[in-house]
Design a protein that fits this description.
Pfam family, one: Methyltransf_16
CATH architecture: 3-Layer(aba) Sandwich
Number of helices: 5
CATH class: Alpha Beta
Largest sheet: 7 strands, mixed
InterPro entries: Methyltransf_16, SAM-dependent_MTases_sf
Helix content: 25-40%
Protein name: Pre-mRNA-processing factor 6
Number of strands: 7
CATH superfamily: Vaccinia Virus protein VP39
Shape: globular
Structural class: alpha/beta
């Protein structure tokens, strides 16, 4: 894991969100052969923040395949500027990020990703700590828009149950209104398995269309017991 984030960028990243990014990366690295993704895989990250997750996925998991792509996105303004600077910094270091792209995708304002990659060609949609009460319904709608193009698309979010109970409620209600279902496929703690309010640590949520659980991933113990372990 040699993706670097310049010191100045850490001022724009919440430490707990960094934890979620690391845990989703842990999960992807452990489960990659079992995710059922094609060799030439196309990935998009929502709310990429400092870009560490998307760059590390592009660096470690798909760099060996020349036809794969990873796209990291965030809102306009300082977020996309910081993201762009971090990508440029790591490209200048010589990391194999030739197939990495970055751009604006702001679900709060119904913007769509428009770099020439069609939604229907994406295989994996990821995000870490992207659930906020104020934008929960917009996020759910955006996920639905992607899944309407390809129902078998894999949608994986790293989420902290105790970060905001109000955000949890808003997001899960929004998913239901969009005919989507959340499934926990990995968790740092046992309490998270039943979406308990006292759940500690990060869970990995897979989002599917309702009654489409044929694409549901099996449970993974790759994060179990890590709630008190520092992330790297």
């Amino acid at each position: 894991r040699d993706v670097s984030i310049p010191t100045i960028a850490w001022t724009t990243s919440e430490l707990e969100s960094v934890r979620s990014s690391r845990r989703l990366c842990d999960y992807l690295e452990a489960e990659w052969p079992r995710l059922g993704l094609p060799r030439d895989v196309h990935i998009l990250e929502l709310g990429a923040g400092d870009g560490w997750l998307g760059m590390t996925v592009a660096r470690n998991l798909v760099a060996i395949s020349g036809q794969s792509t990873t796209r990291v996105t965030d809102q306009e303004g300082y977020r996309i500027r910081s993201l762009s600077q971090n990508v440029a910094y790591n490209v200048a270091k010589g990391l194999p990020l030739d197939n990495l792209g970055h751009g604006v995708l702001d679900w709060e304002h119904q913007q769509v990703w428009s770099d020439g990659t069609q939604e229907g060609t994406l295989h994996l949609l990821i995000g870490a700590d992207v659930v906020e009460e104020s934008s929960a319904r917009h996020l759910a709608r955006t996920i639905r828009d992607f899944l309407s193009q390809k129902q078998e698309m894999l949608v994986l979010l790293a989420h902290q149950m105790m970060r905001s109970l109000d955000a949890n409620e808003a997001f899960f209600q929004a998913l239901q209104s969009q005919h989507l279902e959340p499934w926990i496929v990995a968790a740092e703690s046992q309490a998270s398995l039943e979406l308990k309010e006292e759940a500690k640590g990060v869970v990995i949520l897979q989002i599917t269309c309702q009654k489409q659980d044929q694409w549901l991933l099996p449970w993974s113990d790759s994060l179990t017991g890590l709630e008190d372990t520092f992330y790297v």
